[in-house]
Amino acid sequence: MAKQDPDLSLLFQALSDPTRRAMLERLARGPAAVTELAAPTGLRLPTVMRHLAVLEGAGLIVTTKDGRVRSCALVPQALAPVEDWLAGQRAEWEARLDRLEDYVMRLMKERER
């Protein structure tokens, strides 16, 4: 994986905001109208639309319009690159900790001699 993955950066940027994460949590229960997503935020509709544009730009949601109602739906598979990156980071740090533990244990054994 490239160190500077623009798609991954877009995903983390989208996930960095608590309002957007709350919207994703709501959408995990099923599609919702924009007005439903806006209600708990207390934000004005243009601000909510900017948050939704960021989520849509990152590929985390899709929106559809039926008459005057715009609805949003989560795209769960869009989180796969984030999960993969985090799993890679976890594996790397676990390997480092294992090597550190081995080193410390070797030092302790040498001191016992």
| Secondary-structure element series | HHEHHEEH
- Cα distance spanning the termini: 45 Å
Q: Can you tell me the residue ranges where pLDDT is under 50 for at least 5 consecutive residues? A: none
Shape field: elongated
Strand content: 5-15%
Strand order of the largest sheet: 1-3-2
Q: Give the mean pLDDT.
A: 94
* Number of DSSP E strands: 3
Sheet/helix structural class: alpha+beta
Number of helices: 5
How would a textbook summarize the main sheet?
3 strands, antiparallel
Q: What share of residues is helical?
A: 55-70%
Cα radius of gyration in angstroms: 21 Å
Explained architecture:
The chain has 5 helices and 3 strands; from the N terminus they run ααβααββα. The protein has 113 residues and is α+β, with helices and mostly antiparallel strands. The longest helix is centred in the C-terminal third of the chain and has 33 residues, at 80-112. α1 runs antiparallel to α4 (45-57). The protein is elongated and about 80 Å long. A hairpin with a 2-residue loop joins β2 and β3. The model has no long low-confidence stretch (mean pLDDT 94). It has helices at residues 6-15, 18-27, 34-38, 45-57, 80-112; strands spanning 32-33, 61-66, 69-74. 63% of the residues lie in helices and 12% in strands. Strands 1-3-2 form a 3-stranded antiparallel β-sheet.
